[in-house]
């Protein structure tokens, strides 16, 4: 968004993201709609939180993002989650394969103690 057209709820970082995905004016944002604008930011590789989704809706409704009614928030989240589910997997990273555990045998063929993968290595339990 340009300096003359400051939208409610849209800070400098969000405005920069929107500009980078081609949403430069309030009219651009209105034409795209809340969920599509959010998805453009997400597809561009940024990591927007749901607060951006609510902020975009508040900007279009000219209200504070916290004033967006719960029912509308739920609609927005459901729409965004459905759109996110259709996104292709991230490039350069293969889909995660199942995790397997390999037991190494000591010289005397007794199994070595296993490490619980759920325990944080920095915790006192490890």
Question: What labels would you give this structure?
Answer:
DNA polymerase, domain 1, 5 helices, mainly alpha, single chain, 126 residues
How would you summarize this macromolecular structure in one to three sentences?
By secondary structure, the protein is mainly alpha-helical. The chain has a domain at 3-85: DNA polymerase, domain 1, CATH 1.10.150. The protein has helices at 12-20, 26-32, 34-43, 50-61, 70-85.
How are the elements arranged and paired?
Blueprint: H1 12-20, H2 26-32, H3 34-43, H4 50-61, H5 70-85
Helix pairs in contact: 3-4, 3-5
Pfam families: TfoX_C (PF04994)
Protein name: Transcriptional regulator
Biased composition (Acidic residues): 117-126
Walk me through what this model shows.
The structure is a single chain. With 126 residues, the protein is mainly α. The protein has a domain at 3-85: DNA polymerase, domain 1. The protein has five helices and no strands. Pfam families: TfoX_C.
